[in-house]
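Researcher: Sequence recovery benchmark, item below. Answer with residues only.
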């Protein structure tokens, strides 16, 4: 797609990317405004699961009943629904959700200490920033006149929030 647009519009300043690549670019460009270090590391699934397992251990919880992969999936779902650890904790009613809430909080702290981002953060953090940071939204409004989203029907809540705010 990038090559086709470049062939049609040489030297254009069009951004063509996936939502995740867009989020990573935005986080690096505006890291100083968002209280982030632009040299963050993007964690893959194995790194994420190791960090979740460490959080599970730190919480003193059993990892036989709830595997790191299952907990990471629940955290991913929460991030894609734009739920902070605190918001998730407030809605946790059953034992599994309460376990996820404990792990989610510890996992997020560990990620930030390590200057890491998981794949979901690449959507969650830009969506939250666009939702709450008026100055950032104004800057991006000036930058982007049009936004085209392929396969829009497949967007999740975080992607929808990004699109809506742009």
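Model:
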């Amino acid at each position: 797609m990038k090559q086709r647009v470049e062939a049609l519009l040489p030297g254009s300043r069009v951004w063509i990317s996936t939502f995740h690549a867009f989020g990573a670019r935005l986080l690096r460009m505006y890291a100083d405004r968002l209280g982030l270090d632009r040299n963050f590391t993007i964690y893959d699934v194995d790194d994420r699961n190791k960090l979740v397992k460490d959080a599970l251990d730190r919480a003193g919880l059993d990892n036989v009943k709830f595997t790191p992969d299952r907990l990471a999936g629940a955290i991913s779902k929460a991030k894609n629904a734009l739920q902070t650890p605190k918001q998730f904790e407030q809605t946790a009613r059953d034992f599994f959700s309460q376990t996820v809430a404990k792990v989610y909080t510890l996992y997020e702290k560990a990620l930030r200490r390590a200057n890491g981002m998981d794949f979901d953060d690449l959507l969650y953090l830009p969506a939250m920033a666009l939702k709450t940071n008026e100055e950032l939204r104004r800057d991006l409004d000036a930058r982007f006149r049009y936004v085209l989203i392929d396969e829009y029907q497949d967007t999740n809540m975080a992607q929808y929030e990004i699109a809506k705010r742009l």
